[in-house]
Amino acid sequence: MSGKEKMVSEITPMDVDFAQWYTDIVLKAELTDYSGVKGCMVIRPYGYAIWELIQKEMDARFKATGHQNVYMPMFIPESLLEKEKDHVEGFAPEVAWVTEGGAEKLAERLCVRPTSETLFCEHYKSVVHSWRDLPKLYNQWCSVVRWEKTTRPFLRTREFLWQEGHTIHATPEEATEETERMLNVYADFCRDVLCMPVVKGRKTESDKFAGAEATYCIEAMMHDGKALQAGTSHYFGDGFARAFGIQYADKNNTLRYPYQTSWGTTTRLIGGLIMSHGDNDGLVLPPRVAPYQLVIVPIAAHKPGVNEKAAEIKDRLEKAGLRVLLDDSDNSPGWKFAQYEMKGVPLRVEIGPRDIENGQCVIVRRDNREKTFAAFDGLEDTVASLLDAYSDAIYNAALANMEKRTHACLSIDEIKSCIETNGDGFIKAMWCGDEECEKKVKELTGVGSRCIPLAQEHLSDTCVCCGKPADKMVYWAVAY
Amino acid sequence: MSGKEKMVSEITPMDVDFAQWYTDIVLKAELTDYSGVKGCMVIRPYGYAIWELIQKEMDARFKATGHQNVYMPMFIPESLLEKEKDHVEGFAPEVAWVTEGGAEKLAERLCVRPTSETLFCEHYKSVVHSWRDLPKLYNQWCSVVRWEKTTRPFLRTREFLWQEGHTIHATPEEATEETERMLNVYADFCRDVLCMPVVKGRKTESDKFAGAEATYCIEAMMHDGKALQAGTSHYFGDGFARAFGIQYADKNNTLRYPYQTSWGTTTRLIGGLIMSHGDNDGLVLPPRVAPYQLVIVPIAAHKPGVNEKAAEIKDRLEKAGLRVLLDDSDNSPGWKFAQYEMKGVPLRVEIGPRDIENGQCVIVRRDNREKTFAAFDGLEDTVASLLDAYSDAIYNAALANMEKRTHACLSIDEIKSCIETNGDGFIKAMWCGDEECEKKVKELTGVGSRCIPLAQEHLSDTCVCCGKPADKMVYWAVAY
Questions:
Q1: Which residue of B has its CA nearest to A66?
Q2: Which residue of B has its CA nearest to A108?
């Protein structure tokens, strides 16, 4: 049917206009719809199913590391938000304020949570009294609001869905360990579930979370050479505890301030996987978050036995624990092929009369269109190994993209010419630690500091900007 | 340890002060905490775990009936809320308004969603064009805000968690069928998962959802004789479609208005199960939503082999799919018994040295304290059948409470004396259908119409109020 073929041809090719390619995919793969609320999106069933799978996989990892889910109010009274000075300075300019409720003007403005440190602190003050009450390892799944000026589906929206972990510990060592643990949980999740390689690092002082002593992050590399911050993990020291007056009696009955962390990931991860794996025909989904891991398309479905066989194969594969779609609608096979390529379904299984005669079907991989003739006997195993190979392949392709786009530079001029020659990407360069140099690199080259990677390399002894001694290798990039 | 025993004795007995009993349980079983935001609650890990289990069980039922999850924005522009006249009249007085965002005054006020019909309608208008696009069977899990004056944890809070189903259909028949289907899903869920019997019925005109043609509900009976509306299912006809201009082309290419439904349940269900099953020692949880279905308490744990055996039994029962807590802390067994009775854990498994010698353990049911000596051999089966018996018993106890508190009355005076004699409960009485009579019954007796049950009984030919012909039997009660 030409309808779909037209629809597919409507995707703007990546190299013509990457931003438009992204928007085309988000809308045409039916992940989101625009809403009448500026900067807020409707997440449609196919997009939400991806988020549910992300949640399920991630939540299991949180629980396996001892965390419990809770729910805090969505409103924060202005006076509560103001308790920690750096925190309010960071967030107040971008919050939405509720000023009227039930037809009356409120005595105190309530902000719609942009993040919930202050609410967790208030709760900790109520429930943490003794060393026996520590640690508390909490997480919540909710939506938050930040009044962004420029928005894009998944990448930057005024309201977004996320999880925010908030933990409180007796010692700085435990809290530090937690901060690192969750950074690793995120990085492993990105690798194993999203097939998305990331760089683990620490943010510079100027780029820390408002109120944090240290912010760690994972940074991914998109198809267009821009970096995407995919998750953050913060160490707060006892700053919030002091601001909120949270104290606990230790084993000697001495009052002490506890130490806190928070860490978060958002629906932005969906944007990340689109721009890590997608191509000019649409989405390419990692199997563990694909709403359907394979689609069965009957060929010459009017012939006797074809639809029956397709249904039987669907049942068998579902029993093997796979998420399977059988499209036995009256659309043409060609329409269906394009449709499910657009939607990024990892495998397409074609079953026609001749295949049935031969006791086999045809399986086509979404990423490279590779065709396999697979016997019905043992099909479950064939599919499982094809999905594994597919996962490895898209991970390796994303890793190759990151490596191809990562360059070491020793001077500002080298950075400029590297970008001119290779386009956007990660620039590795030494930095002395001075904020002025950080700013100047950005001004002169357009790339900002993304992180100080945990895996450091020694490129030279001197700062790429001022030439003074430098012991930090920084990843620089243009970022989403 | 006296600490806990003191804590248990602090629960106000039900018959001394039911409201205080409820509050005591909610706080002392650590389901919620107060927050600094008036009328909003913190849902603590134990309370949230119950909600997660409710979500899991209910979501599976939604998906099994063909529904898909989506996510709509949390804000509704004032002009959008106003599109359906009855709807805005019903909700505008109790919404919270965002009037400032990112330090600027908004051109148009945004209300924090009290319910999302208007947002779903806007989206349907964007995606429904042809009969091929119907039906859409959507649901979302989120929080909503209604600016209530008087609030109580779970029962009535300014912000609450819920699910809202929103569906759109080609014909009124299909939409009606959906409305009924979901009412039944709710009723079955309450019976099978929450062990809570409900009456299925239809709301009177005066009690309908704002904008609905018909509202159906399930009503449960609490320990104190008050009714609790536990879920609602609405049929909208084509009213919203006309107000929002949603039309689809049917198979003959004629433009038609589609028909809609919505249906919802909330964290109020947790309040319902507390007041259906709880007793003066605390919570009594239905096994399918109990965060722990059993707790293992080692006895004389310092004796060799006790903790090891307890751990072994925990592993075995977890492998059998049960949610098990092993409390091997240094608190006394007595403290632990009281603690887990307070928390409503269905079964307590005691394992001591003599039990181990005898190849058995002691199992105590939370609801009736019945003790069973259970051999380690086949323990999985013993526990499974004890949980089944426990579920049946608490369901039957709740049903007996409902039946004991349900009385048929033929006149206003009978209603009055029935309430005087028996206390609160359901009054069954005939009604002519006149709103004036409905109001008058409330004024004269204090009980309001809860619903017109689907299972009608013919008590008499005349209205309990005006004496005119009546063909509707109504359940009346004081309600939460």
A1: B45
A2: B37
The CA-atom distances, in angstroms, between B328 and each of A418, B8, B14, B306 are 61, 21, 32, 10
CB-CB contact of A67 with A138 (8 Å): yes
Residues A419 and A338 reside in one and the same domain: no
In a domain, B398, yes or no: no
- Locate tokens 């304020």: which residue? A97
- The length of chain A in residues reads 480
The verdict on B142 touching A (C-beta cutoff 8 Å) is yes
Same domain, B357 and B222: no
Per-residue pLDDT of chain B (480 residues; tens, 9 = 90+): 344 444 455 899 999 999 999 999 999 999 999 998 999 999 999 999 999 999 999 999 999 999 999 999 999 999 999 998 888 988 988 999 999 998 899 999 999 999 999 999 999 999 999 999 999 999 999 999 999 999 999 999 999 999 999 999 999 999 999 999 999 999 999 999 999 999 999 999 999 999 999 999 999 999 999 999 999 999 999 999 999 999 999 999 999 999 999 999 999 999 999 999 999 999 999 999 999 999 999 999 999 999 999 999 999 999 999 999 999 999 999 999 999 999 999 999 999 999 999 999 999 999 999 999 999 999 999 999 999 999 999 999 999 999 999 999 999 999 999 999 999 999 999 999 999 999 999 999 999 999 999 999 999 999 999 999 999 999 999 999
| Total-model pTM | 0.96
Q: Looking at beta carbons, which residues of chain A come within 8 Å of B37? A: 73, 75-77, 110
What ipTM does the predicted assembly reach? 0.96
**Looking at the domain assignment, is residue A454 inside a domain?**
yes
For position B351, which CATH number holds? Answer: 3.40.50.800
Q: Is residue B399 part of a domain?
A: no
**CB of A73 less than 8 A from some CB of B:** yes
The CATH number of residue A36's host domain is 3.30.930.10
Q: Report CB contact under 8 Å: B71, A42.
A: yes
Set of chain A residues whose Cβ sits within 8 Å of the Cβ of B36: 77, 80, 119, 122
Domain range for residue A358? Answer: 292-388
Rounded CA-CA distance B279/B286 in Å is: 13
| Residue A138 touches partner B, C-beta closer than 8 Å | yes
> Are residues A228 and A247 in contact, defined by beta-carbon separation less than 8 angstroms?
no
For helices A379-404 and A306-319, angle between their N-to-C axes, nearest 10 degrees: 70
Residue A7 lies in a domain: no
Residue among B44, B75, B119 minimizing CB distance to A70:
B44
Shared domain for A199 and A50, answered yes or no, is: yes
